[in-house]
């Protein structure tokens, strides 16, 4: 049964939008929207190896056991690992599974993309499971460097994920400038992929950034755009996430009712979907909204509800943040002993998980409560712990808060010198040019650091590649000397032949657009000019006296006469002449032909040496008034040929022109094969207008007959 499930899944995997190369974007959306469902489906069909696969050979062997190719197995392993690392996926063996998969992928990677994916998963595991954010950033940047050249869809999606992870992680640890750089690149990649779900995700992450910076108008703009895109399809998880974020914006704008409405709707969706991690965050948003209205008892109720959800899902990072929030709430109600209990639990968990970005705020709050309780030594202790953490993260406001607590303690201990010293530091922080220039300096240093890291890892990668190449060359050096001499001779001969062939190809390519008789630009050159869209009118000039000139006066004299004719025509402004065959010349004009009689008159003045009649067929481009309808260039010339066929039916001896103009409602089917038949019918029905200086009544169009279906009635095209 398990084997049948695996075969069924592989067939789906091979031909469905989940993993088909044609629709990797759909797979990416499923990983974000319904990762638990995806994880359960793959896990039910595929058993993981008990230990990491050590080589490509082991990967191939294990893949054969599973009835898969090595590439299919690698793709499935990546899907399982990525789904495992989503915050809303539950798996009791998550760490073990992720470790086995990441190590296997790292051991068996053979392409830059595979190596980059292994690095990304390793960094993601560090950030998600161990909160080792700085180490994770190093792996993410290495991954960007390893696969930075490929433009394949899978590589573009990988880079999109890397910039998203770097942006959200840097935002969490208070490196806001660097976070913005990566979040903007995340959005750029999403727009390049033209996927509404991914674009909405990128807009939402930028909204989170602007919430943190308290630029609430910008945050609201980003979330509104994200909601607009998300509403195009049914994505309940993404919509709930956006509602939760909008609740934060409205909360910070002081619009509590709107904030609570959005948050409660998001909480209902998360409850229905069974996503505890985001449900906890939403309950916390509701609690913070009530706290902003000084409704501390209501806030505590929602904090406690969130705490139950965190315990149920074993989300200890969220639980630590929840302890901090409860400590703050109880301190506002002057229940300081209870507040200290929660804050000390939070402190211990933040320290264990090295969550310095939360620890710094917890230390300041502990200092504040100890000061309220006149625990001066503890107040100073926690303030002293907060100061270096705030210094590391450039949090001047937190440093000022910690110094204020130290001033209170110093005054209580009658240590006036210390109080004055701390006050001076506060004044220095508030008045220092550093405060005014912090953003600019921080931006420059963060960007410089990021570029240096990328450059460093790129150089390391290049050095490793060069080292491998050098090792291989050393092993093969003895035999390579003789082989090089032989190869040099072969390569030299090959290069000479290749250069000669290249020169011949270039010469032939240059001659390809030329007319083989006259050496002037001919039919192919005309088609190229039409493709560029610069030709506004097209005409076909027939000079009967030159049509058989090669027989009557000889090949060379005919060529001379044709070249003379072309040169004379091109003295007229805005006309380029192309020889089609003896006596037939195509004219490309850079303006519309509004007065064909004037054009014919000018041509006659330029061609005074030619005897006999001039026949001119013409059309203005585009042939159809609707610019969205296109006609092949060969059809244009065939239309002009029919115009000349019509002129042939008139017993005229003077110069004559004939042109076609399609009416606004003319369908494109008129100009399809068989053209002569369709065009004749359309002229008769008034869809195409004929313009000529000859007698329209005497016009006769060529008889048209299908070889195989002469006796059958042809269907109308109109």
TrEMBL record:
<keyword id="KW-0677">Repeat</keyword>
<dbReference type="InterPro" id="IPR011990">
    <property type="entry name" value="TPR-like_helical_dom_sf"/>
</dbReference>
<comment type="similarity">
    <text>Belongs to the Rap family.</text>
</comment>
<keyword id="KW-0963">Cytoplasm</keyword>
<keyword id="KW-0802">TPR repeat</keyword>
<feature type="signal peptide">
    <location>
        <begin position="1"/>
        <end position="21"/>
    </location>
</feature>
<feature type="repeat" description="TPR">
    <location>
        <begin position="200"/>
        <end position="233"/>
    </location>
</feature>
<protein>
    <submittedName>
        <fullName>Tetratricopeptide repeat protein</fullName>
    </submittedName>
</protein>
<keyword id="KW-0732">Signal</keyword>
<dbReference type="InterPro" id="IPR019734">
    <property type="entry name" value="TPR_rpt"/>
</dbReference>
<dbReference type="InterPro" id="IPR051476">
    <property type="entry name" value="Bac_ResReg_Asp_Phosphatase"/>
</dbReference>
<dbReference type="GO" id="GO:0005737">
    <property type="term" value="C:cytoplasm"/>
</dbReference>
């Amino acid at each position: 049964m398990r084997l049948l499930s695996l075969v069924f899944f592989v067939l789906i995997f091979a031909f469905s939008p989940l993993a088909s190369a044609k629709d990797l974007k759909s797979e990416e959306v499923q990983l974000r929207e319904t990762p638990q469902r995806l994880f359960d489906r793959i896990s039910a069909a595929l058993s993981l190896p008990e230990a990491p696969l050590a080589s490509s050979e082991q990967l191939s062997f294990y893949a054969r056991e599973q009835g898969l190719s090595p590439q299919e197995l690698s793709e499935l392993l990546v899907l399982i690992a990525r789904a495992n690392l989503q915050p809303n996926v539950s798996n009791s063996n998550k760490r073990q599974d992720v470790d086995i998969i990441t190590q296997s992928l790292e051991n068996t990677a053979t392409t830059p993309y595979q190596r980059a994916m292994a690095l990304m998963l390793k960094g993601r595991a560090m950030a998600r499971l161990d909160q080792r954010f700085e180490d994770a950033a190093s792996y993410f940047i290495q991954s960007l460097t390893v696969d930075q050249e490929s433009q394949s869809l899978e590589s573009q999606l990988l880079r999109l994920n890397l910039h998203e992870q770097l942006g959200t992680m840097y935002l969490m640890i208070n490196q806001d400038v660097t976070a913005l750089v990566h979040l903007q690149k995340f959005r750029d990649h999403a727009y390049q992929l033209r996927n509404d779900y991914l674009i909405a995700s990128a807009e939402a992450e930028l909204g989170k950034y602007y919430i943190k910076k308290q630029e609430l108008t910008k945050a609201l703009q980003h979330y509104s755009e994200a909601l607009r895109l998300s509403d195009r399809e049914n994505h309940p998880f993404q919509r709930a996430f956006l509602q939760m974020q909008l609740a934060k914006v409205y909360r910070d704008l002081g619009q509590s009712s709107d904030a609570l409405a959005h948050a409660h709707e998001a909480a209902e969706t998360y409850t229905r979907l069974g996503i505890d991690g985001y449900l906890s965050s939403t309950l916390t948003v509701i609690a913070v909204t009530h706290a902003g209205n000084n409704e501390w008892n209501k806030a505590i109720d929602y904090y406690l509800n969130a705490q139950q959800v965190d315990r149920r899902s074993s989300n200890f990072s969220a639980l630590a943040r929840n302890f901090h929030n409860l400590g703050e709430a109880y301190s506002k109600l002057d229940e300081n002993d209870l507040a200290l209990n929660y804050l000390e639990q939070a402190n211990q968990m933040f320290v264990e998980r090295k969550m310095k970005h939360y620890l710094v705020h917890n230390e300041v709050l502990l200092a504040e409560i100890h000061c309220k309780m006149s625990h001066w030594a503890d107040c100073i202790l926690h303030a002293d712990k907060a100061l270096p953490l705030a210094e590391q993260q450039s949090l001047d406001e937190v440093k000022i808060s910690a110094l204020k607590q130290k001033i209170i303690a110093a005054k209580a201990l009658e240590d006036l010198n210390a109080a004055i010293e701390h006050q001076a530091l506060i004044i220095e922080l508030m008045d220092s040019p550093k405060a005014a220039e912090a953003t600019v300096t921080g931006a420059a240093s963060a960007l410089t650091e990021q570029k240096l890291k990328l450059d460093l890892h790129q150089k390391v990668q290049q050095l490793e590649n060069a080292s491998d190449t050098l090792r291989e060359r050393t092993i093969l050096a003895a035999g390579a000397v003789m082989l090089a001499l032989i190869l040099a001779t072969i390569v030299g001969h090959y290069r000479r032949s290749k250069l000669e062939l290249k020169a011949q190809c270039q010469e032939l390519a240059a001659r390809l657009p030329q007319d083989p008789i006259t050496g002037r630009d001919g039919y192919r050159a005309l088609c190229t000019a039409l493709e560029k869209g610069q030709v506004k009118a097209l005409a076909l000039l027939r000079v009967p006296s030159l049509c058989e000139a090669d027989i009557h006066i000889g090949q060379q004299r005919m060529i001379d006469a044709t070249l003379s004719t072309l040169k004379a025509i091109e003295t007229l402004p805005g006309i380029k002449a192309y020889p089609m065959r003896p006596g037939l010349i195509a004219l490309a004009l850079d303006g519309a032909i509004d007065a064909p009689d004037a054009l014919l008159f000018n041509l006659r003045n330029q061609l005074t040496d030619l005897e006999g009649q001039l026949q001119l067929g013409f059309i203005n481009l585009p042939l159809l008034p609707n610019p969205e309808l296109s006609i092949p260039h060969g059809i244009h010339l065939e239309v002009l040929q029919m115009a000349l066929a019509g002129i042939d039916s008139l017993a005229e001896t003077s110069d004559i022109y004939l042109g076609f103009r399609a009416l606004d409602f003319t369908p494109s089917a008129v100009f399809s094969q068989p053209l002569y038949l369709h065009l004749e019918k359309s002229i008769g029905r008034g869809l195409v207008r004929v313009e000529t200086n000859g007698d329209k009544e005497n016009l006769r169009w060529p008889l048209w007959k299908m070889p195989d279906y002469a006796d059958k009635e042809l269907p109308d095209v109109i």
